[in-house]
Amino acid sequence: MARVARLLLFSAITFLIVIALGYAVFGYMVFLNTSPFPATKIFPRKIVIGLCILSPLVLTTSLLGCCGLHRSSAAFLHSLVVALTFLCIGHYVLAHLAHLETNIVTAELGAYSDWNSSNANTRTSIMNEFRCCQWSAADIEGSKAHAPAAISTPGIADDGDASTPPVVYDSCLAGAGPCENILTDFRVTLAPKIAIACYAVIGYLLLTLSIDAALIYAMRDRRKRRAREKHWRNAVGDEGLLKRSMASV
Predict the structure, then answer these.
(1) pLDDT at residue 167 is higher than 70
(2) Are 82 and 30 members of one domain?
(3) Do 173 and 137 sit in the same domain of this protein?
(4) Cβ(98)–Cβ(47) below 8 Å
(5) Which of 8, 54, 109, 220 sits 20 to 30 Å CA-CA off 187?
(6) Rounded distance, CA 133 to CA 123, Å?
(7) Model pTM?
(8) Which of these ranges, 64-68, 80-84, 157-161, has the smallest mean pLDDT?
(9) Do both 19 and 47 map to the same domain?
(10) Domain-embedded: residue 235
(11) Residues 121, 157: one domain?
(12) Which domain holds residue 33?
């Protein structure tokens, strides 16, 4: 039993390391604005911060598990139980933050904050991705007033091909609606998916915790069995121990 539990725990810990690296890479791309996906630029910042905090914690938890497996240390394995419990709590907090984004007012405030903190290039990529123009209708009118010659015909690109998407002029897609409602709806739709992903990770963490608990129990049972054998050997000698083993068979 202990051998199977060790193998399962090793596999679970390996995947935890992959999760930690995924969190770190995602946070790096969002905060340094290096993500090739414009949708991540309006990803809820609180959740991104949470993922960045959880990344080293998940990695540390994985190292605890590796040390416990390498040394067959009950202390490390018990510490792993505590660490996995805290990770479950952390992911539950993230799921709760995601649920808050299902509120339209909260989602709109978050989207507006991310929009205001974005530079011109980021806003352009967002408008290209979501086919929207500026934040609000008032911003669109202001853009047209300041650059009337920069507005093109909707659906017509520079090469005259009507099948190509509208061209961005002065950081705005000609004829497109404001980004306010589109980005808000995107965050509201994204929130349940984030929550489901967090609950899935919690389920995986609980599975890992149960495997760890099974390994602790198997190791404790093996130590007790060895202790009984040692006590019996000291009491009756090797010959008596052999007779006892044959009798049990």
Answers:
(1) no
(2) yes
(3) yes
(4) yes
(5) 54
(6) 9
(7) 0.74
(8) 157-161
(9) yes
(10) no
(11) no
(12) 2-130+184-221
The C-alpha angle with vertex 121 and arms to 115 and 122, in degrees rounded to 5, equals: 35
Neighbours of 231 (CB within 10 A): 10
Q: 117, 148, 177: which is the final residue of a domain?
A: 177
Nearest to 62 by CA among 18, 107, 98: 18
Residue with tokens 């202390």: 75
Helix (H, G, I), strand (E, B) or coil at 48: helix
* E strand or H helix that includes residue 172: strand 172-173
**Angle CA(51)–CA(55)–CA(59) in degrees, nearest 5?**
160
CA dist., res. 236 & res. 239, Å (int): 7
What Rg value do the Cα atoms of the chain yield, rounded? 29
* % residues pLDDT > 70 (the chain): 70
Q: Are 138 and 162 members of one domain?
A: yes
pLDDT in tens, 140-158: 665 555 444 444 434 434 4
- Compute φ and ψ for 136, nearest 5 degrees: -130, 170
Question: How far is it, in rounded angstroms, from Cα 122 to Cα 143?
Answer: 17
The answer to whether the beta carbons of residues 187 and 101 sit under 8 Å apart is yes
| Residues 66 and 138 grouped into a single domain | no
| Overall size of the chain counted in residues | 249
| Residue 126 shares a structural domain with residue 206 | yes
Whether residues 66 and 188 share a domain: the answer is yes
Overall number of domains in the chain: 2
